[in-house]
Amino acid sequence: MPDRRVILRMHAVTKVYGAGDAAVTALDNVDFQAQAGEVVVIMGPSGAGKTTVLTIAGALLRPTAGRIEVAGVDTTGLAEKELPAVRRGSVGFIFQSFNLLESLTALENVRLVISGDTATARSATNRARELLSMLGLAHRLKSLPKQLSGGEKQRVAIARALANNPDLILADEPTANLDSKRGREVMHLLRQIAIELDKAVVIVSHDHRIREVAHRVVWLEDGRFRSDVVTARDTVCGQVVEVEAAPMTSFNGQAFYFCAEQCLKLFEANPHRYAGTPG
Amino acid sequence: MRVLLIARKNLFSERTRLAISVGGIALSVFLITFLLSLFRGWNEKVGGFVENVDADIWIAREGTTDFLAAGSFLPVEGVDERLSRIDEVERWSPLIVRPMTASKDGTKMDVQLVGYDPVSAIGGPVRIEEGKGVPGPGEVIVDEGLSRRYGVDIGDSIGAGGRDWRVVGKSSGGDFVASQTIFITFDQAEEALQMEGLATFLLLQVTRPSRAGLVAGMIGNADPAIVTMTGDEFAASTRDRALGDVIPILTVILILAFIVGLAVAGLTIYTATVEKAREYGILKAVGFTNGYLYRVVFEQSLVTGLLGFLLGAGLTVVLGPFTQQLVPQFVILVRWQDVLGMAGFTLLMTLLAAYVPTRRLAAIDPVAVFKG
Questions:
Q1: Which residue of A174, A251, B94, B190 has the fewest CB atoms within a 10 Å radius of its CB?
Q2: Ramachandran angles phi, psi of A138, nearest 5°
Q3: Domain stops at, among A229, A245, A266
Q4: Could you tell me if A51 and A108 lie in one domain?
């Protein structure tokens, strides 16, 4: 990938929750960056600090130490009341559970984020319509979230994330609530957005399939990024696991790794099913 | 100012809740406006007659406070001579007033029997609506309030003060709500009530009404056995006598109505805010400020308040006259100042109702929306 402008830069970021004996270090002196046109996937076990990275990068949470720059703005130096403007203008969020406003139509969900109190209603509506059409939802503009499928809801959420043309898109488990077909569609959509719209897309996910669309995959564990990690897919639940630390078994001369003992037991009970061999 | 889209959608997507909220405020507004209008109506009626009597000063026996419970006896003899010494007294007239129970075909009626001098006409009927303007011997003019309430009509006979009187006219302006005036001449009253040479009140007109207070004080100071009041003072005193005990009760009811409205609006708006807490968290996460969210809640509250106010005030205006027809004692007087004041109270109610939910909004952590 050619040299591109850096959209997200996290330098020596530490986040500690609680204090004293109860203190938990979620991020420990982490450096991370994402460039325009790039899809970076952050993977790691539950509790590794993935969501903390996203919320700190998205100016929702302040780090205990370190510095964060979003689209050239040092968000750690901003006052609390200045952060909403950064979130609204420079960051687009995509959530696992879509998080659309239930009483608003697809068009209104997107328009709301654009217009707020400043843009004229007409220009906001046109922009929202254009985005939804681009994502294949021209026929669903007036549908309420409850009338949309999971994939459609996530596409509305993506349109909302793009509404104010932010440089950085942060996606938290964007495929977790979708079937494999819809999940794959969303993944490719995110890659397309990064490349064609020149956005930095940072995705937190357990879903191994999402690696297909990533320009980079980074592994986060115990609050630190690790570059020497060998990973494998848990064939039972689909999670990506670190080979070194995962429960393991062999079958037909091949090694299989699991996220937990539970998945290992399920595999052992019916290895043909999970190994994809005729049983 | 346009109502924010999200405020509008939140309100109208939960119609049952909106109906409860608007209904609660409307009930509160209706109750307050209706009771206030009822009070205004009574106030107007009770003091209205005394205010409309063409007298600048009322003189009564010491201890007399008002028109309704007048146990005053003043000798008429010598009054002419004494008042003639005061230059500023233009003329005077005696008035007999006796609260009593009259009857018509066995129906008991609370009345104020008024005996007035038909020559001066001071203290007589305020307006003649029908029939004769001055009663003759054995004749009486009744207030139309009595006519409405008991069906007394011209040509009927009513018993009062041990005699029967033939109704020859109907007047207005003499309705005290709980009782109504009936008018006979002073001579007839003297005779019927065995008050020869006595009057309940002496009514004075002065050359300069602006100095009525000074003249009243002068007369009162000269004779410790009497009490003097200006027309306005006597009207106020009569109102106080009739409604003084009602005001504290009314105040409590008004406060309760306000609290009921506030509680209903507050609870429904609070519940709506709590239910939408996640959505408010989403809005915070995607960059909306607390100020924007406060505005959303305040606007929901204000729209609810406006709808409740319009419904409640409208009900008062529509139902007021209808109620008055059904129950004559319900004298409703809707004043625009009261309606305006009620709009202010509704605004206060809605602002208070939105205050607690906005505190809740401030505490919502947007990071929570990342949890599935």
A1: A251
A2: -60, -30
A3: A229
A4: yes
Model confidence band, residue B65 (pLDDT cutoffs 50, 70, 90):
confident
Give residue limits of the domains in chain B: 5-46+245-370, 53-242
**pLDDT at residue B297 tops 70:** yes
Query: Considering only CB atoms, which chain A residues are within 8 Å of B292?
Result: 116-117
3 state DSSP class of B62: coil
Q: Determine the structural domain holding residue A238 and report its residue range.
A: 232-275
Q: Does residue A187 sit in the same domain as residue A259? A: no
Quote the number of domains for chain A. 2
Beta-bridge partners for A47: none
Determine, yes or no, domain membership for A1: no
Using DSSP's 3-state secondary structure scheme, residue B121 falls into coil
Shortest Cα distance from B274 to chain A (angstroms)?
14
At residue B213, does pLDDT exceed 60?
yes
The string of pLDDT tens digits covering residues B18-31 is 999 899 899 989 99
Residue in B with minimal Cα distance to A117: B4
Global pTM value: 0.75
Which residues of chain B does A60 touch, with a Cβ-Cβ cutoff of 8 Å? Answer: 285, 366-367
A47–B contact, CB cutoff 8 A: no
pLDDT, average across residues A116-135: 82
Give the tokens for residue B132: 């004769």
Residue type, A108: E
Answer yes or no: are the C-beta atoms of A43 and A217 closer than 8 Å: yes
Contact state of B286 with A96 under an 8 Å Cβ cutoff: no
From chain A residues 132-171, the ones with a CB under 8 A of any chain B CB are 160
- The CATH number of the domain holding residue A212 is 3.40.50.300
Taking residues B40-53, report their average pLDDT.
86
Residue B2's pLDDT band, with cuts at 50, 70 and 90, is: low
B284 → chain A, closest CA residue:
A84
Q: Residue B143 has which token pair?
A: 């207030």
